[in-house]
Amino acid sequence: MNILLTGYKGFIGQNLLKHLQSLLHNVQGFEYQPGILPNLRDIHQVIHLGAISSTIEKDVDKIISQNFEFSMRLLSLCNSLRINFQYASSASVYGNTTNFRENAAKSPNSPYSWSKYMFDRYVESVPYSQYKIKIQGFRYFNVYGPHEEHKSEQASPITKFSMQAKTQKKIIIFENSENYKRDFVCVHDVCKVHELMLHKQTSGIFNVGTGIATSFKEVAELIAQKHKVPIDIVPMPKMLTHQYQTYTCSNNELLNKHIQIRFQTVKEYIDNEK
Fold this sequence. Notes:
There is one protein chain. By secondary structure, this protein is α/β, with parallel strands linked by helices. The chain folds into 2 domains: about 1-140 and about 185-210, Rossmann fold, CATH 3.40.50; about 145-180 and about 210-250 and about 260-270, Alpha-Beta Complex (UDP-galactose 4-epimerase, domain 1), CATH 3.90.25.10. Helix content is about 35%, strand content about 20%. The strands form 4 sheets. It has a 6-stranded parallel β-sheet with strand order 2-1-3-4-5-10, sandwiched between helices. β4, α3 (about 110-125) and β5 (about 135-140) form a beta-alpha-beta unit. α1 packs across α5, α4 packs parallel to α6 and α6 (about 215-225) runs parallel beside α9 (about 265-270). It is globular and about 55 Å long. The relative contact order is 0.15.
């Protein structure tokens, strides 16, 4: 299959590029440039991952332009050329809640989350039957794995704590980290979901998570035990308190109707990480 992958230089993009190529797909990368759309000649499928992913980015115009308006134009182009379309959404659209069904109420609380929510709404503003193509959106939960080291403070705690253990010989966590729980999903499993769903003749928006919530403290303790380092506890920065989700846990009922996948646990990943 000839696939165009936007955001191929990013964390998930790098992993997905390798995964698709390992399965003998022909993948062409594209990075965002203002006002420019990709050449889709001979392309069978677009996978749109490119976005400003920082949850603390405050330039709303920049986020709307790149994450929302560009996505709309790309979808329109794919629809006109009859090229199937997958795209990355985010579980952050749910906000602070315990209901993570795809049709649950949404409460985005950062410009990034709003941009993802707006595009989800745009996609669903038209019945899928009225599109000429198959459209699949994936609401990623908290993705971790190789190639996210460059994200620094925006990296997952699995990567961030591992780097701290190796370089600082300690792990730093926020106060009350036992109460902050996330559905941490390995990027390798995210890649499997994308590829498996390429072969399913269905449209929709699907959660992509493990269905298990693990606390930041549990993650820190697993990594501290592996590397034999202490854990320091610090106050949470005020800039994060208003947008920090206390809990995420994917409801996978919709995804499970189409594919079956065994998600790797955080402990399994940490135990096998070099």
